[in-house]
Design brief:
Bound molecules: heme C
Number of helices: 2
Order of helices and strands: HHEE
Shape: elongated
Strand order of the largest sheet: 1-2
Structural class: mainly alpha
């Protein structure tokens, strides 16, 4: 019995090494290493993207990717970025604690939610949220590098 098992193991090992030897080494060309179809040694300029979104006040809210996802910026951010220590236009329009939990009319900036304040009553923004575009991103209609079947869900409210 044992002898048979040993011979079997040796034969299986031989079969494996024969198959391995049959596949020649395949070098991967340097322009097939990443999503960008140019050589890894190139430094191509990124494609200029047209965000083309409507102005704030006339855009339509984007469906959320998942529950608790930071909502996408549905409007154009031209002239609003970069956010600096001195200017934060996002805050000027969206930090409105009096409106939190109220019904918002169309065209009125959605108030930043309660999670964004240190003290909602005092309207004190939590400074860890100061850089809004760290989490909220504008959207552009671009040719995607990899198709996705992920489905965005409408928000629960
Ligand atoms: C002039 C006022 C104004 C400014 C400045 C502004 N927004 Fe808005 N924002 C709005 C309005 C109004 C809406 C609601 C949709 C609409 O009517 O266009 C909105 C919608 C949004 C939404 C979608 C909210 C939701 O519930 O889907 C996000 C996120 C957002 N803005 C983030 C930002 C960020 C980040 C900035 C700064 C880069 C910014 N906004 C600057 C007025 C403004
Ligand atoms: C650290 C990430 C992060 C930063 C920074 C941040 N947000 Fe948010 N934001 C979120 C997430 C996550 C949500 C959705 C969940 C929630 O309610 O907290 C959200 C929700 C919102 C909403 C939608 C509220 C609603 O009722 O649907 C608005 C408007 C908003 N943020 C504005 C802002 C503004 C303006 C800033 C900058 C002053 C900012 N956010 C900074 C993560 C962030």
């Amino acid at each position: 019995m044992r002898k048979h098992a040993l011979i079997g193991a040796i034969l299986a090992g031989l079969a494996l090494s024969v198959t391995a030897a049959a596949v020649p080494d395949q070098p991967i060309p340097d322009d097939a290493l990443g999503l960008s179809k140019t050589s890894v040694y190139d430094d191509p300029a990124p494609e200029v993207v047209d965000y083309g979104a409507p102005d704030a006040g006339s855009s339509k809210r984007v469906p959320a990717s998942y529950h608790t996802a930071p909502p996408m910026i549905s409007h154009s951010v031209e002239g609003m970025v970069p956010i600096t220590r001195e200017t934060n236009m996002c805050r000027d329009c969206h930090v409105n604690p009096d409106l939190v939990g109220k019904k918002i009319d169309k065209g009125v900036p959605t108030p930043a939610p309660v999670s964004h304040y240190v003290n909602l009553k005092a309207g004190e923004l939590y400074m860890g949220r100061y850089n809004c575009t760290q989490c909220h991103a504008p959207q552009a209609n671009v040719k995607v590098l990899v198709e996705s079947t992920f489905g965005a869900k409408p928000r629960r409210k």
